[in-house]
Request: fold
Amino acid sequence: MSLFGDLLSTIFERRNLPFSPGRQDARPTEELIGELVGAAGEITGLAAAGSILQRFEEMDDDGKLAFFRHLAADMNIDPERVRSTLDAYEADPSKRSYRAFMAAVEPDRQELIRRLNQIPGATERLVRMRSDLLRLGGEDPALQALDQDFRHLFLSWFNRGFLVLRPISWESPAHILEKIIAYEAVHEIESWDDLRRRLVPVDRRCFAFFHPSMPDEPLIFVEVALTADIPGSIQGLLAEDREPITAEEARTAVFYSISNCQEGLAGISFGNSLIKQVAADLSAELPGLKTFVTLSPIPGLTRWLVSEDIPFAEAEPKHLRQLAAHYLLSAKRPDGLPLDPVARFHLGNGAQVHAVHADADISEKGRVQSAGVMVNYLYDLGRVTQNHERYATQKEIAASSDIRGLEAAARKQDFRRQVAAPSAV
Reply:
């Protein structure tokens, strides 16, 4: 970690605060919550916050659900107070009336979460608390509203200005490497030897974002392959017997795996900043790099094919590529955005759908989720802002001419007939 990152970690740890995590309080949890929100003294607040967090972590799921429901129901906004303060501000806009309105629209549970975060190590514990909320909350509207309060605060606490980018190498601490293995969500790391193959060669890189208050917990990480050309197979990219190239020979940086690590930070996007920062750092380190692409899964492809009654088990590679292009450009959610979640992520970052490849992931997972097809999203650093703006404002998908041609061919074909009788093509 950089000197600046170490400094931030020291600040966030706040080791000088006189708090004992082992202190217990026999009073009801609701009483402790009320004391914490109303506490004027820092020491009293720290003791209450520690007791609440420790008690929550010892609860079973029923207890945690009751805790969340108390926050949702008893620490919510008062709609009548919100209306009256808004009317007062509208009638006489002033610092005083605006302050009263802002106090009314912020529920007490937001202040509770802030005060819980006063003690050392609390940020990580609150991230785990939100993970429990997401797991237990289901479709309950009141608990979904409570989650918005967590998300609102986390968006501030985990903004890009606080994140520290750290390279992950074979020399990184073992406990960090163990977490990289555990959190890998795209292409499973099967062993320490497998991890070594992804970190040690001179044409491989890995980077992760950390938060100073969670220095031992990666938030998100990306694995990068330095290659001569744009790859079309993950098995080839990760082959044990491949011949590494020198970093100076590389012309392409391939982001082949991006994994979010913390379930409690769902909806807090780090990927956009991570890819752009890594691309900028690699460009500075290796001026010979000209192309930045992903080799990405298409997790919704086979599910969409099944929903459209399109047989694909015997489809030829050409037809699978056409179907994949059609899916990526034309399969949409009701809001007009792409159906595929990985496509939404990269297109929202300003990338372009560049190429699709059949037999690109022949693993069982790859066959099940996308019939083995993978896609390259191209990050043209000179066009990402323009692509992002068009996608955000007009829902326009940037795509290469090759992808447009494949999609046009798909529109002309009757795949139900062709897949069933490929000899007739």
